Amino acid sequence: MEILISLLYFFHEFLDANLDLFYLLALVLIFKDFINSKKRNLEVIKYMYVIILYGCLQIVLNPDIILLRLIINLAKMYINLFLFVYVKEMIFDLKFLRNIVYKTSFLFLLFIPISLVFKVPMLWRMNDFVNSYNQTRLKLFYYEPSELSFHAALVAVLLISFLLLDNNAREKRKIILYLISNSLLIVLSAGMGGIVSLVLGIVTIYLYKLVKSFNIKRILISFLLFFVSVSTLIYLMYSKNNFYLRVVDIFNGKDGSVVYRFNTSYEVMVQMLQKTNGLGVGFGNLNTDLTRSIYSAYGLVDVISNSFMYFIGEGGIISIVTLLFLLLFLLRRIKKEEGILKYGLLVFIVIYQVAGGYYTNPVNWIVYGIICNNYFMKTKGERL
Which regions span the lipid bilayer (predicted)? Predict the structure, then answer.
């Protein structure tokens, strides 16, 4: 099971971003749940009930909605919610999650030398016109380089948590090796969203650990880390490398990608809410020729490059309520003894979706399920 999940995590966008292999896994689990007369499907229907009703309301009030797109989008939401409920209710131990992370990290490590030798389109994006700072970017088998950055950074957040939770010197050496290889992947993919999310996730984990066990040793380590960070920043400033130049442009409002992800996406979302009286343009209907033509005057080129704004633009007021409910639900499910792992995960996944991604990405909902799972941090349990 661990090997299967690791392979799925590594290859799940291999066919296409819209034909995610985790969807196929979820369909198998949904069918299995139905055959075994489990109650997970009933719980998902409970969550989906209001959203489905709202989708029907959108059909009635918005004649421009493409019905097939709405149905497909609601089906994706159902699949993602099922994955969330399944992972939330799974009984497994921390070793099970650790083994998945290790096996995934090994796959990443294995493909680093392969990708450096074979610079082919399947593994690399050449002449990237979107990112003018790094035009040759590693993507491995993901849809785009930023997705590789996200996936490698998510694994790195978990590895950092394991590093702080583990007292075994051998395990720590293995974790550090995998952290180095994952960091190299993030650098080669040049994904700013993954980098920022990773940094904030690590800071959250470390601050939680510092507050929980405050002592002189940790204060000294904190000063050392601060010194290393400042030294690195000074080096980047004087070296004038692409990463530093991009950060400067971001703060000066000159980075086109960041401007589109935040300023333009926000303006388009607001216009969508105003023009539809808070109803939204319809689930699954943002990425259509009609919607792009209507909102192109406000800067919409393809889609809104922000998971939450994308969801709000399509779902209107109900999406805002849903997101607030989801955030509160996640926070309430984190117990004090689980904070060192789960708060870092929560900050990471939220920040990344602010920076980009899609709310129908199943990995997001699997992470939500891990955050809400109350078993693996305290029991060996049964591996499902």
Answer: 14-32, 44-61, 67-86, 106-124, 148-165, 177-207, 219-238, 307-331, 343-360
Q: Is residue 380 part of a domain?
A: no
Which structure tokens are listed for 302? Answer: 């393809």
Rounded Cα gap, residues 182 and 10, in angstroms? 13
**CB–CB of 148/356 below 8 Å?**
no
Does 220 reside within a domain? yes
DSSP alpha helix (H) spans, 263-316: 265-275, 289-295, 307-315
Cα separation of 335 and 61, whole Å? 43
| Max Cα-Cα span within the chain | 65
User: Alpha-carbon distance 28 to 24, whole Å?
Assistant: 6
On whether residue 55 sits in a domain, the answer given is yes
Question: Is there a domain that residue 268 lies in?
Answer: no
354: tokens are 């602010």
Helices (H), the chain: 2-11, 21-35, 40-61, 67-89, 94-117, 145-165, 169-189, 192-212, 216-239, 242-251, 256-259, 265-275, 289-295, 307-315, 317-332, 339-355, 362-372
CA 317, distance to chain mean position in Å, is: 23
- Residue 66 CB coordination number (10 Å): 15
Residue 10 corresponds to which amino acid? F
103-159, pLDDT tens digit by residue? 999 999 999 999 999 989 889 988 776 666 677 889 999 988 889 999 999 999 999
Residue 236: domain span:
2-263+295-372
- The DSSP line for 135-167 is SSEE-TTSSSHHHHHHHHHHHHHHHHHHHHH--
Q: What is the pTM of this model?
A: 0.89
